Amino acid sequence: MSASPPIRTRAGGRAARRAIRTAPDFDMLPGLTGTLPLCNVMDDGQIARIDAASMDILENVGVQFRDAIALEDWRRAGAKVEGEMVYLDRGLVRDLIRTIPSEFTYHARDPKKNLRLGGRHSVFVPMTGAPYLRDLDDVRRNPTLADLAMFHKLSHMLPALHSTAHHIVEPYDHPISQRHLRITYSSMKHSDKMFMGMTTSPKNAEDVMEMCAILFGADYMETHPVTTGNCNGNSPLVWDETMLGAMRAFCKRNQPVLCSPFVLGGANTPASVPASVAQLNAEALSALAYTQVIRRGAPAIYGHYLSTVSMRSGAPMAGTPEISLMNFMIGQMARHYGVPWRTSNTLGGAKTFDAQAGYESAATLSAVIHSGANYIWHSAGWNEAGMHCSTAKFIVDAEQCAMAYRMAEGPQWDDFDQALAAVCDIGPGGHYLGHPHTQENFQSAYFMPEMFDNNSIEQWMAEGAQEITARALTRARKLLKDYEEPKLDPGRNEALLAYIARREREIPAADELNQSY
Amino acid sequence: MSASPPIRTRAGGRAARRAIRTAPDFDMLPGLTGTLPLCNVMDDGQIARIDAASMDILENVGVQFRDAIALEDWRRAGAKVEGEMVYLDRGLVRDLIRTIPSEFTYHARDPKKNLRLGGRHSVFVPMTGAPYLRDLDDVRRNPTLADLAMFHKLSHMLPALHSTAHHIVEPYDHPISQRHLRITYSSMKHSDKMFMGMTTSPKNAEDVMEMCAILFGADYMETHPVTTGNCNGNSPLVWDETMLGAMRAFCKRNQPVLCSPFVLGGANTPASVPASVAQLNAEALSALAYTQVIRRGAPAIYGHYLSTVSMRSGAPMAGTPEISLMNFMIGQMARHYGVPWRTSNTLGGAKTFDAQAGYESAATLSAVIHSGANYIWHSAGWNEAGMHCSTAKFIVDAEQCAMAYRMAEGPQWDDFDQALAAVCDIGPGGHYLGHPHTQENFQSAYFMPEMFDNNSIEQWMAEGAQEITARALTRARKLLKDYEEPKLDPGRNEALLAYIARREREIPAADELNQSY
To answer: Which of A12, A324, A326, B403 has the fewest CB atoms lying closer than 10 Å?
Structure first.
């Protein structure tokens, strides 16, 4: 029980993992490929019940498309159209959605940051859309373009975030009608990770597509997904002109769209988890099918936003058990149809970054992982039901995603025999800290969260008795100090700036800077 | 789309659930019977590898039993014993553990609060052993018997807690050598839920058994589990005299014991998740087998305490991905052997009830549910790595357990058709809040956490801008005001007090009040 075991080294997963851990902290983790068995709460019969209920809704209740072009498209595609109501036969729906790719690869500015999506492949994308932020001093205020740039820089540096998204916060210091240009440029410039494309109007979406064409080439986009647009539904069972027009802009360029019914369980869906899923599923299917009417084979993602509603206040809630159950069920439905799917992560309804925010976020993150979601949006910063993006929470959420990533990879077996040899070496009553296997492997064996303080209370007090908010803000300042802007081809940069300048001349600046759309 | 659907009522699960929700807030939830598919991260081959590795350890490395009686017991049972080392043949281990009941029922003072354990049946038990508390003013200080009584009262009133446990906090105002008597009496008196039995020494354990015999009858205990003792191992691979003696006291009375290796991953186990599980499994099996040497057929629970160690400070960490993975794996091993198993829940390493505590606790709770743990200990209050029990966190954790309970029950399908009828009624663009199905079902359909604030920031500020800690402490005060002590048979109460008085005369009071054991 004294001789050290030979230290084997392998070219396999463990060595790669160790490399990840010893590389600079801000190297992006590869796209997640999950191995955990998924939490499939429905049997085949229950999946069939949801499917049948959704198809009944599509055929008999119908979906409202408040958009003349979409109605004409549907008519040509063979659907029954009455006024704005579209009734979709299940045969037509099934025929349309079968051409949605079950997997595809996102192409980033840095090809090393390309990402597979669909099947067991998942990506973490930060939150978007906050009209307020809690800043580096934890002060709640309206954001600016500089604040947005800050979040894009942090997204670039935090390893588990795979995207800079788009308007993480709303830049209030720039005219509303022109914001999408500056937001898109900020995403593109501050990181070489993938990013999202604004869908605030069909014309804005066209601008985003033009800017992507400048960055990647229009032909390249025909065969390479480079961004993602989100199209929210108006549940129950309505899609509007803004979203459908934006959807067309993306689909025509072969760029993926999220088809996202917006569930406030109990308010715009029934007071029943399975029935809410059936309604949501009908809504998602109707939009997914429409993407294929626009362009056969275009990538599309089964989306949704999920919350349940407090019957005391009507407010959306986060981290509730029914949101978890709906995630599990929606995952099963998306896999049933063979379509990649999106969910929302680490949502908080708390007004500050207190324990409520922690519970809510971790409960959601867990459900997201166990449901096998692919496009894991709102993965950092979301608090106050999306009203603010918290800088502190942004940092902590991103580390939580890295921890969930580790969990989702499952146990590592490749050094099992070596580690067992250590048990023989140490024997009863010993300790492992000095053993060569421990010294060689502890970094990859056990995740050490930097944002969690595990010191004694005496040590913690000696270090200033900082709660996690303060520690995370210190970390954010440090990251921003270390930030290095990734190179952007000067010609493309100039072309982007020229495009923005031209469009800002063409688009009238709205008067009201301080109004969010 | 206007007629309301007929409202069906059923005697089944949903009606029962509604009854639970509309009953007074402090009625105990029935024992949890989970329905979610479990997160089985190992295939049969991997389970076999862990089993084989553990059996190799038991046969070749051996386990140290630092206790003369246990060594003699093992010798008689046919094990190879050399000094304090016991080498257990896998045939002997398998033969011994096969008589451990895979399920049994705990009997509480109030028979309505009896609880099934094992298989898919689980119970939530609050934390124990804290040398400090954060009190009703969130002040960190040493606890008293009055503080312990407060936690027993809260445990009695919080619906998801199935037990009052024992020394939730250490009562520093009573001599160490006599504490177990007052602790046990406090558990018994302040609630008619089940409780835990102190195992701080063999004699203390005998006292607990005597007190249980007074409360339930010695003969009754022969066939009815009424309490639980915990026996911690000294990992790696050591069991000591104190724990083994206490184990014998419980097993001889046919009362269940938790056989709990104490894992600090990387310090007293290898730097490998599967190898740590293999060592822990060997340790647990050795103790489980010994319970059957003591008394064939005695109930016993596969236990463990799990943390991973920070290689920066040596401190135990909570909420890490490897703890989740170990929970998943240990659940599979316990089910493989057909033995109920225990885990630890809602652990926090944070010094205050901040977001760190929330993330850590929710991440652990999620893993506990997805791993299918049966005896879910430390389910409320644990923070600062167990150094303090937080009154605020106690309240919130208990509600989180109620939420996890709801999730673990899975989706409710019994009113699916009615709820779908509501989708037809409402149609595109409507809302459900006024629909009869919603009004009838929202309480049971969607959990509304009382400790989460989901109001607007304006409303929240108008109500005093309270973070969750303050709200939870207000809730604790309200519960304590509403507390009603359950009736205890006066004769048994007197007999218990007489027993305590006699034993306190017999046991010398240690001088040092302020030393924990």
So the answer is: A12
ipTM: 0.94
- The per-residue DSSP string of A450-486 comes to SSS--S-HHHHHHTT---HHHHHHHHHHHHHHH--PP
A254 Ramachandran zone, left/alpha/beta (phi>0; psi -120 to 50): left
* Position B228 confidence tier, pLDDT thresholds 50, 70, 90: very high
Distance of CA B80 to the CA centre of its chain: 35
Which of A46, A326, A356, A467 to probe by mutation at the B interface, max B CB count within 10 Å? A356
DSSP B262-315: EEEETTTB-S-HHHHHHHHHHHHHHHHHHHHHHSTT--EEE--EEEEE-TTT--
Nearest CA to A238 among A49, A59, A61? A61
Whether A192 shows a pLDDT value over 90: the answer reads yes
Rounded to the nearest integer, the mean pLDDT of chain A is 94
Total residues found in chain B within this entry: 517
Task: Please report the residues numbered 78 through 107 in chain A whose beta carbons come closer than 8 angstroms to any beta carbon of chain B.
Answer: 85
> Please, what is the end-to-end C-alpha distance for chain B in angstroms?
69
Edge-first strand order for the sheet with A257-260 is: A229-232, A257-260, A300-302
- Closest by alpha carbon to B100, among B259, B291, B243, B273? B291
Residue A5 has pLDDT above 80, yes or no: no
Torsion of CA A418, A420, A426, A427, to 10 degrees: -160
Residues 6+ apart with CB under 8 A from B500: B181, B182, B185, B211
Q: Which pLDDT belongs to residue A159?
A: 98
Would you call B469 and A426 a contact, using CB atoms and an 8 Å cutoff? no
Q: How far apart are CA B356 and CA A460, in angstroms?
A: 14
Residue A316 has pLDDT above 70, yes or no: yes
Write down the pLDDT at residue B313: 83
Indicate yes or no: CB of B270 within 8 angstroms of CB of A438: yes
Query: Structure pTM?
Result: 0.95
